[in-house]
Amino acid sequence: MNNLSLYGWNDALFQLKQTSQYNHLSHGRVSAVNKTNYEVIAESGLLLCELTGNLLYGRSLFELPCTGDWVIFQPLDDSKGIIVDILPRKHTLYRRKSGTISERQAIASYVDKAFIVQSLDANFNVRRTERFMAQVLEEDIQPVLILTKSDLEFNRHQVDGSLKHISRQMPVFFTSILSPGTILPVRKFIKPGESIVLVGSSGVGKSSLINALCERAVLPTSEISQSSGKGRHTSTRREMVLMDDSGVLIDTPGVREFGLALDNPEALADMFDVADFAASCRFKDCTHVNEPGCAVIEAVNNGVLEEEVYSSYLKLRKESWYFSTSEHEKRKRDKSFARISEEAKKIKKR
After folding, report:
1. Which CATH architecture best describes the domain 265-345?
2. Can you name the residues that pair with 116 across neighbouring β-strands?
């Protein structure tokens, strides 16, 4: 038997379940998504579940269950079931689906904290950290930067300096799986019932970090490639791991590209400390690009705001504006199509 409160089940979720027409059936949390089924952790154990036809064909790919979702299912036997409903998502980490302009992809839902994992080698990239952080903050998820492989030689002063504009907004941990003492503070930072998603590039040590946090080998890891010096792909899917007497860890495959899927690009100004200067701009609708009297540009010219930080802000804002505008247009088209469909149905009834 599983205690689902360890996986995050609470009174608020219970109330959500009561709004479903299937509230008399069993519930569980999606721990992994396979090509044709879903692994669901329920009180009775782990089940392999498929979707009802209504869910499979009545919803878009974006709306189908992702790791972390809470679902209601009809048990078929002790190991199988049929998912009949999905509870509304909260605190969901998204990304822009690769190869698209405005389509979202859900990575994990009901997330409390996101561990942005980077290694202190050639992989270290502040711009990548900013990108992950922006998306995490969008859904009111607490970002945490985990720097791995601190046993390697690196310039601590240089690293701290490059992170100063974002380290005020999230904790930063320097870790090495070869030094258990560096893992302990991270483990203490995870509270019972919390859900933590780990994101980052391949080879940064996400799976190794999870094993170290759990103090046992729960996920496979691979050695560093001798030819490229980079870690080989280990995680091939998003899956959930329960820590002993603590929270839930969600491992994710390494990503080469993490496209932003922000609804509110203007929020980036707060993340990059641009908002502090923007309040003094001559024009309220200043875009901080070429307007006269722009306090942000003045701060860059005076060296108060780093030019690299400013350039990164403009780049992410432009990408976010493009996504949010495209998403808005897509929603307008969907609403128009739905309205036309309803009108067509009324005509047929006449």
Report:
1. Orthogonal Bundle (1.10)
2. 145, 199
Give the per-residue pLDDT at 340: 44
* Strand-pair partners of 143: 114
Distance CA 79, CA 77 (A): 6
Single-letter residue type at 23: N
Specify which residues 114 forms β-bridges with: 143, 197
Residue ranges at the known binding site for Zn(2+): 281, 286, 288, 294
Alpha-helical runs (H) found in 84-223: 126-138, 156-167, 180-189, 206-214
Q: How far apart are CA 212 and CA 130, in angstroms?
A: 26
Distance CA 111, CA 194 (A): 8
Dump pLDDT digits (tens) for 46-95: 999 999 999 999 888 889 999 999 999 999 988 999 999 999 999 999 98
When computed from its CA atoms, the radius of gyration of the chain, rounded to whole angstroms, is: 23
Which residues carry a binding-site annotation? 148-151, 200-208, 281, 286, 288, 294
Q: State the binding site for GTP.
A: 148-151, 200-208
Side-chain half-sphere exposure of 68, counting CA atoms within 13 A: 29
Query: Where do the domains of the chain lie?
Result: 4-86, 93-251, 265-345
Q: What is the largest CA-CA distance in the chain?
A: 77
CATH superfamily of the domain spanning 93-251: P-loop containing nucleotide triphosphate hydrolases (3.40.50.300)
For 4-86, which CATH superfamily applies? Answer: Nucleic acid-binding proteins (2.40.50.140)
Q: Tell me what pLDDT residue 235 has.
A: 57
For 276, the enclosing helix (H) or strand (E) is helix 274-278
